[in-house]
């Protein structure tokens, strides 16, 4: 069984990205589960490697095809953007530009069939903006680079997967925004992502908006019947194993014990809360709906500790694990 | 002088609840588990004949003893299930609520309230009721809690708290549609809820200085108003007012990071802005033994945190864990209350 190739973007070079990458790739089990192709600056990785005491060699590559995956070396598509003595711990346009270019290159690498999924180290929005790239974050940037009109946010913890119909909008606005078309597209993304990842006909539980799923209109203004049920019915008609709208208070427990492969949450806190309650860590953030699976660490650039060798690599390892888990299981057309 | 009665300390009063639901079965099962799971002595306010018949139907060997006075319950409890008789007007068919039995359902609640108010019972534990059946019988209250408040003749609205898995949550509004729950949020409502919660945590749970946390409504706590303004306009001012009144209060805090294990160490209870905000974390951390507690009543009342489960009634498959947890919680609360009253009443 061949290992999937995961393109790891180095993120903001002044943050903890280079360090957590070198630390994570020093774990034998990480090298075992995937072929890691870093997209970044080889010299920066060497600096970070020295800081964290890594013995790994870093091979700087001009092109992904040159990658020779081996236990003792890190393969890095080297964009040579970061000056040797560039400081850690500060917002800079240089690092912001780098973060942007790594993502851009990683997308091309995946499009060329040279990697199966992307795992992103954190970038600084401020640095990104200082470099002239006015995107709110990774997700929007990836959507633009791949020409994707709409994506969904999935959170994955060891026991639970959740995909969100709405995310960063006020609760009243979220209720107003939910409609069958949107719900149907999100269910579709959940279904497609899991099917590609090798889960045959995944069992999908869809949350309600109101307490007790509205108890047939007793609690609510018919939001379930109007906004959710038509989407669920349409998905069922395709033969998908979709259930709902279900009372959200009991659904997460049931999904956490294995009754469902994924839960569709209607709003941000509905999905985020249970993930954090059930997971020791906060869970891995995955953007779905892009032509490529993208997972991300759950922390930021941590400028306050960058360059000190103390950053924790576990979130990156978990993000890599989820990238491997959700990477398409049919061999890519290379 | 009740403590000197024939059965020792007063038992719990367990109401019938919806007779066609799982309440009777839960009572029977709780009794069979009285030793293995240390279920406190209780008296069931129900129809003894139908309880015996139900035991036979689901294959439980439970001797049922009719008692006229709860004082006998504790003595009887070891060998039989004590039932204080309430006559059901119509035969009970599991899974099919009959409004004609509504009067008996209410009589069971009424009598339990009288027994806890007189001190004959230590606390009341209520089995779930079927609101639709009671409405059809002319019941004029939104639910159990409002009815109890009316019977207790109190003016301050009681508060519902749910506890389980080391977490205590208090939904500010209960069975409102999400959209209406947001509209119903007021500074006064939150403050009032905070006061009742804090007072009860002290009186009923022995927490000297309760720490309250207020959950935010919007993602990331509204992010300074860019993701909603309820935090700025309603929740933060409520927190400030509670702090002014001397309560230990934090918030509004983003609700997604408020409920995991580490966060739970920071507070004794969370005031939640809507039903599911409270219920999702509670049911996720403790699906089976969550307890519903009414705060602010002149007596102790708890209940299991599930409904009548008409779909499985009569099948013998109902799980009594939440009812047993509710009974244990009721005993603990009653004992805190009693010791508080004792020390307040004892001369300096």
UniProtKB/TrEMBL annotation, chain A:
Domain of life: Bacteria
A GO term for molecular function: oxidoreductase activity
NCBIfam families documented for this protein: pdxA (TIGR00557)
Protein's recorded name: 4-hydroxythreonine-4-phosphate dehydrogenase
Keyword Metal-binding: yes
Coiled coil region boundaries: none
Record-linked PANTHER family: 4-HYDROXYTHREONINE-4-PHOSPHATE DEHYDROGENASE, D-THREONATE 4-PHOSPHATE DEHYDROGENASE
InterPro entries: PdxA_fam
Swiss-Prot/TrEMBL keywords: Metal-binding, NAD, Oxidoreductase
KW Transferase (keyword) present: no
Organism annotation: Skermanella stibiiresistens SB22
From TrEMBL, chain B:
GO cellular component: cytoplasm
Note: The active site is located at the dimer interface.
Residues spanning the membrane: none
Keywords attached to this entry: Cobalt, Cytoplasm, Magnesium, Metal-binding, NAD, NADP, Oxidoreductase, Pyridoxine biosynthesis, Zinc
Record-linked Pfam families: PdxA (PF04166)
Enzyme type, top EC level: oxidoreductase
Reactions mediated catalytically: 4-(phosphooxy)-L-threonine + NAD(+) = 3-amino-2-oxopropyl phosphate + CO2 + NADH
Compartment(s): Cytoplasm
GO molecular function, one term: 4-hydroxythreonine-4-phosphate dehydrogenase activity
Keyword Magnesium tagged: yes
Protein name as it appears in the record: 4-hydroxythreonine-4-phosphate dehydrogenase
Cofactor note: Binds 1 divalent metal cation per subunit. Can use ions such as Zn(2+), Mg(2+) or Co(2+).
Subunit structure: Homodimer.
GO term, biological process aspect, one: pyridoxal phosphate biosynthetic process
Organism name: Skermanella stibiiresistens SB22
Record-listed E.C. numbers: 1.1.1.262
Amino-acid positions noted as binding a divalent metal cation in the UniProt annotation, renumbered to this chain: 175, 220, 275
Pathway the protein takes part in: Cofactor biosynthesis; pyridoxine 5'-phosphate biosynthesis; pyridoxine 5'-phosphate from D-erythrose 4-phosphate: step 4/5
Annotated residues for binding of substrate: 144-145, 283, 292, 301
Gene designation: pdxA
InterPro entries for the chain: PdxA (IPR037510), PdxA_fam (IPR005255)
Main location: cytoplasm
